[in-house]
Amino acid sequence: MVDEMLREYANVCSLRLRMPISSDLHNTRNLITKITRYNKVVNIPNSVSVLDELLPISIEMAKRKCKGVWNFTNPGVVSHNEILELYKEYIDPEFKWQNFDLKEQTKVILAPRSNNELDVSKLKKEFPELLSIKDSIKKYVFEPNKRVK
Prior knowledge:
The structure is a single chain. By secondary structure, the chain is α/β, with parallel strands linked by helices. The chain has a single domain (about 1-145), classed as 3-Layer(aba) Sandwich (Rossmann fold), CATH 3.40.50.720. It is about 40% helix and about 10% strand. The chain contains seven helices and six strands. It has helices at about 1-5, 30-35, 50-65, 80-90, 100-105, 120-125, 135-145, and strands at about 15, 20, 40, 50, 70, 100. It has a two-stranded parallel ribbon. A two-stranded parallel sheet has the order 2-4. A two-stranded parallel sheet has the order 3-6. Helix 4 (about 80-90) runs parallel beside helix 7. The radius of gyration is 17 Å and the shape is globular.
């Protein structure tokens, strides 16, 4: 509904974020911080937004006067298990987690969740240097936070 309304204005740029991730692993709004604190996670691939890479792009979009609705995620999808494997590899080798299925998840969450891959071909065309989700998470989140042995 909001997207439809914004389409009426020729001078608006709307960025659709999804499951934001940042290099700040202490931020409680960070997807990685959230899922490392859950007892169980569901293992379904989703689009996510790596803010450390995407926020500078948003400034460039303003400079270029980009307009319209943009899916503002990194290309591809990543599952919670894939993120947690990287967390274990880079941050905490002792980290463990459990999975549950969607049916179990619906019993413990307050609001329904959607799982999807957003089409970012428009964003990728404008910014061909945009990294895939897994490469972006490694470069912008886990490598800067890598634990020292």
